[in-house]
Write a structure and sequence with these properties.
Thiol Ester Dehydrase, Chain A; six-stranded antiparallel sheet
Length: 158
């Protein structure tokens, strides 16, 4: 059995399972400001605390939706920390998203965490594509901040 096949079998067994829930991560105003600088998105709802408090229904500044999306990287890495890398892995790559929805604003200073559930796995020669449903939970809220279907590809040696 190839390394790709073995990984495929393991990942496929996770479909329909309970999934994993990570640790809380604070989305600070400093992080929001740094993201605004990195992306040239300086809309007042993200960086001007006084104006956002006075002129929006959010009660203050909120994180960019794209910042929340980008935080999937550290939030998901925390779920696999300490797991051994499967035999024969050459690289893992971001393949894309089938769906992204920003359901609730993420106020500056709030905390988010990730719930990841395996949705689909496809064997493609020496690679395995897997789609995970990523739910970003917002502490203290029944409604998630974001929902995304993230496809990643793990490439194996031949």
């Amino acid at each position: 059995m190839s390394n790709a096949q073995a990984f495929f079998d393991t990942q496929q067994s996770l479909i329909g399972g309970e999934g994993k829930v990570g640790d809380w991560l604070e989305v600070s105003q400093e992080r929001i400001n740094q993201f605004a600088d990195a992306t040239d998105d300086h809309q007042f709802i993200h960086i001007d605390v006084e104006r956002a408090t006075a002129e929006t229904p959010f009660g203050g500044t909120i994180a960019h939706g794209m910042l929340t999306l980008s935080l999937l990287v550290p939030l998901s890495a925390a779920l696999t920390k300490g797991n051994p890398i499967p035999a024969g892995v050459v690289m893992g790559i971001n393949y894309g998203f089938d769906k992204v929805r920003f359901l609730s604003p993420v106020p500056a200073g709030s905390r988010i965490r990730l719930k990841a559930e395996m949705a689909n796995v496809v064997l493609k020669g020496t690679a395995v594509d897997f789609t995970q449903t990523m739910t970003v939970e917002l502490e203290g809220s029944d409604k998630p901040a974001m929902l995304a279907e993230w496809i990643t590809r793990t490439v194996f040696d031949s």
